[in-house]
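# step 3/5: fold
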Amino acid sequence: MAAEKQEIQSVWTRPERRRRDQPALSREQIVAEALALLDSEGIEALSMRKLGARLGAGATSLYTHVANKDEIMELVTDAVFSEIPPPAATPGEWRPAMRAIAHDLRAMILRHPWLSSALGDIGLLYLGPGVMQLNESILELLEEAGLDEDDAGTAITVLFAFVIGLAITEAASQQTIRRSGMSEPDWYQKFWPAAELAARPYPRMHKRYADIGPVISGRDLDVEKIRRESFDTQLNCILDGIDPELRKGR
């Protein structure tokens, strides 16, 4: 088939189909069961056959609603983005609202660690209604704060790239730690001496590891608190770059 005649393959580019000769199996049922499977067993466990068996419908019935596993991933990923509440802000309070969105996005990715493998493979994620509605509400918030359309669009891209990039790295690290069978504090206390040793030929990097070493080796190590504080510090840099008042002097 010539390239110009090919259609874009996505669950969002065609209408939902429903068979009439059997009880309807809805998209919502498929998405809910696929999400439960992904959360409990990970992305490697998802297959049309296994999902059909869990639904008591068989893989063939799934093809009434989706063309393949990729389309299931599009649906499920959009569903988890719908977990993020739209921003609520009073005039002049856009910054706390954006901070809440960033934290909610991070928390959502950490709740669903399979996203760390999925997000890079879902090219048409942005067509889903969950992502569309979230983006629409953020654009409205930023435009009301004083950004023009182009700057508001750029701000969303930068914020999402920062949060998603950092959170999928966190999720991947947490999966590595879980596979080790150790708690997070125990894992980091064993890892840190090796990291400090590897950094010794690089004075600036070594100083960073050495400075935080006493915190890591402490008895009351709270890894999540350290990550959250680091996230907030970096997020402030992003929000400063978005801030229309700070941008006026540039």
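# step 4/5: annotate
The chain has a mean pLDDT of 86.
# step 5/5: archive (pending)
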